[in-house]
Design brief:
With 367 residues, the chain is an all-alpha fold. It has one domain: NCX, central ion-binding region (A middle domain of Talin 1). Helix content is 84%, strand content 2%. The strands form 2 sheets. Strands 1-4 form a two-stranded antiparallel sheet. A two-stranded antiparallel ribbon has the order 2-3. α3 packs antiparallel against α9, α8 runs antiparallel to α9 and α12 packs antiparallel against α13. The radius of gyration is 21 Å and the shape is globular.
């Protein structure tokens, strides 16, 4: 691999991050101007903006043809795992995340359903244009439900919109914000092309499959905007945006990114046996794993965030060991399956029981 390819790969990552930042800043400013709540902004505008790198990389990979098509699916799965385990985990470590009931009742169940649907569609060994159209239709339905729920409860959203216009800030320059959105989109498209080319070159040089590159290097690279956005949002006290960004991005990755990628691809997106038997079930399991910590006091605590980060490190380590055919792969897998997972499940159940008892004592004492 020549130096130019490496330089373009690094520049591509920078363009993705900077472009997504410009896109999010412009779009979120416009959204707040019209009075949309922070949670809905995180679930839609910010989630869409930070998922744009995944969309650009995956669609570009699919259109390129056979050589890079496996990268598209690996990027979506890897990005979702990074969104939930790393982004929510790191954000919770920075500050415990309060969770609104809407996430438990609507958004997390939608994420679980989308993950399950993706798994079911892959049973025949591929995701075709019809599957992609169904996924994208699901995105339109989900967005409609979100907008309708906002209209039913406009008070909080309007209050935030009023606050943003009465806090002494300068008037919003709409043309300028639209310009930021346009520049961000251009940077994302250019950066995604260079990133895909570099990733393929890395895969060829090291003899690593493009699926693994998509699950790790590209997935992490395209998810950096989500990580930066969520951590900064938590640091500034905007925890709704942080949680909404991670959950919303995961939903968008499956319904929009994978859906449009399958529609645009000249061939059916192939699903390998390893993805079917391991990566997709793990993505579904991680989506389901969000419910217990969210239900326990509507709070993702620091220790739960640390558990999430630990599982992402374990997943990435396992995938690398499998790819390298390392001798310790089976031992490592047994430790995770027979020790770490049961211990985590027991801990979450104990925490849930403790929380339910606390709520019951509180309800009894208030009567």
């Amino acid at each position: 691999m020549d130096l130019i390819t490496i330089v373009l790969f690094l520049i591509g990552l920078v363009l993705l991050v900077v472009g997504a930042d410009l896109l999010v800043r412009g779009a979120s400013t416009i959204a707040k101007k019209v009075g949309i709540s922070s949670l809905v902004i995180g679930l839609t505008v910010v989630a869409f903006g930070t998922s744009a790198p995944e969309l650009a990389v995956s669609v570009t990979s699919a259109i390129a043809g056979d050589d890079t098509v496996e990268l598209a699916l690996g990027n979506v799965i890897g990005s979702n795992l990074f969104n939930i385990l790393m982004i929510l985990g790191v954000s919770a470590i920075v500050a415990p995340l309060m969770v609104e009931r809407q996430l438990i009742r609507l958004d997390v169940p939608v994420m679980i359903a989308a993950s399950a649907l993706c798994l079911l569609m892959s049973l025949d060994g591929g995701i075709g244009k019809l599957d992609g159209a169904i996924l994208f239709a699901g995105l339109l339905l989900y967005t409609y439900v979100l907008i309708r729920s906002t209209r039913k409860h406009p008070e909080a959203a309007q209050a935030e919109g009023d606050e943003s216009t009465t806090s002494g800030d300068k008037p919003v320059n709409i043309p300028k914000q639209l310009g930021l959105v346009a520049v961000g989109l251009v940077m994302l498209v250019v950066g995604s092309g260079w990133l895909v080319d570099g990733a393929v070159a890395f895969a060829t040089m090291f003899g690593v499959s493009e699926l693994i590159i998509g699950l790790t290097v590209v997935a992490v690279g395209t998810s950096l905007p989500e990580l930066a956005t969520s951590v900064i949002a938590v640091a500034r006290g905007e925890r709704d945006i942080a949680v909404g960004n991670a959950i919303g991005s995961s939903i968008f990755n499956i319904l929009m990114v994978l859906g449009l990628t399958a529609v645009c691809s000249p061939i059916e997106l192939p699903v390998s046996d390893s993805v079917m038997t391991f990566d997709l079930p793990v993505m579904l399991a991680i989506a389901i794993a969000c419910l217990p910590p969210f239900i326990t006091g509507n709070l993702l605590a620091r220790w739960e965030g640390a558990v999430f980060v630990g599982y992402y490190i374990a997943y990435t380590t396992y995938r690398v060991l499998v790819e390298l055919e390392h001798g310790s792969t089976e031992t490592f897998a047994n430790v995770i399956v027979w020790f770490a997972v049961p211990l985590t499940v027991v801990t979450f159940i104990a925490t849930l029981i403790q929380e339910m008892r606390a709520r019951k004592r509180k309800a009894t004492g208030s009567q």
